Amino acid sequence: MSEVTINSKFKLFGTMPNGEAVYSYELKNTNGIEVKIINYGAAITSLKIPLKTGNIIDVVLGLESLEDYIKSYEIGGSPYYGATVGRYSGRINQGLFTLNNKVYQLEKNLNNHSLHGGNIGFSQRIWSLKKITDGINPSVTLTYFSPNNEGGFPGDLNVELTYTLSENNELSIDYIATTSEDTIINLTNHSYFNLEGQHETIASQDLFINSNTVLETDNENVPTGLLLNLVNTTNDFSNAKKCPEKIDSSFVLNKENKIAASLYSDINNLKMLVFTDQPSVHIYVGGKNDDSITAKENIKYQSNSGICFEAQNFPDAPNHSHFPNSVLKKNETYLQKTVYKFEI
């Protein structure tokens, strides 16, 4: 631990099967918002917001114990609760891509494709604590070293991730990465949000997405390379409407409006705004929830208990030359920022 302020809150969250300790870090701003992050998968485990009614609501889904987080990756269709996803979030067709005239084969962990970094992506790795600060705009910085050929990806990759909780009620996520040789990268956060708490579904909440186009996908949800116009379709959320029961789509963000997406609960008069410098946000509802996994407050989550706003590059971008660039060169630095702002 290179720098830890004396008042910062961190405690043992659990122990890995190999005996390695996993810690939970708490950030709290002067408005009473509190976020907890564990260094297993650099995952957000809770995000509590005080309402004007005096109630405190936890707006992200999560699990009770480290054992349950580990177990969640052993079921089919792992939910990736709150996790940092990498090296490459989303699907890569057949787990194949070509870089500098060389074909790379990635681990296949979903049908015949690579998803979210392969069999053991960043979401199941132990991250190291670099720094945690208290006081105004508290933050925690975690790092992970991904060696060459981990999951089939080229290059030694050094990743630094900082969560900051501002006094403006913004939870920002800043990513920095460098590589020893040219590689591909696409990082995101996989938190499930619910502005009405752990016991409710998102059915009554309003969803806005600043997008008029979505990536077309095949029957295995792999991008075809085409973009579809959303105007007057079911998935057109350019005017806010109720959250869908199920969705798993990458929306191409409009550049003229800084807000990428938003979620609003009329019941709690609570709104979340999403800002990002990424070209898309992948909206996901409908994850598998296994009865063997105990959620927070001893709840059994439903498929629409939460909604993900995965700010990222396009899935399968390495295989489509007209998609945004996903290559990180060895002399370059990967930078990404996403902000979740809460208005009470």
Structural notes for this entry:
The protein has 344 residues and is mainly β. It has a single domain (3-343), classed as Beta-galactosidase, Chain A, domain 5. It is 2% helix and 44% strand. The protein has one helix and 29 strands. The protein has one helix spanning 66-72; strands at 3-4, 9-15, 21-28, 34-38, 43-50, 56-58, 84-85, 91-92, 96-99, 102-105, 114-115, 128-133, 139-146, 157-165, 170-179, 183-184, 188-189, 192-193, 206-209, 211-217, 223-229, 241-242, 247-253, 259-265, 270-276, 280-285, 307-312, 327-328, 334-343. The strands form seven sheets. The chain has a ten-stranded mixed β-sheet with strand order 1-12-13-14-15-29-25-24-19-22, with no helix packed on it. A hairpin with a 5-residue loop joins strand 2 (9-15) and strand 3 (21-28). It is globular and about 60 Å long. The model is unreliable at 1-7 (pLDDT under 50).
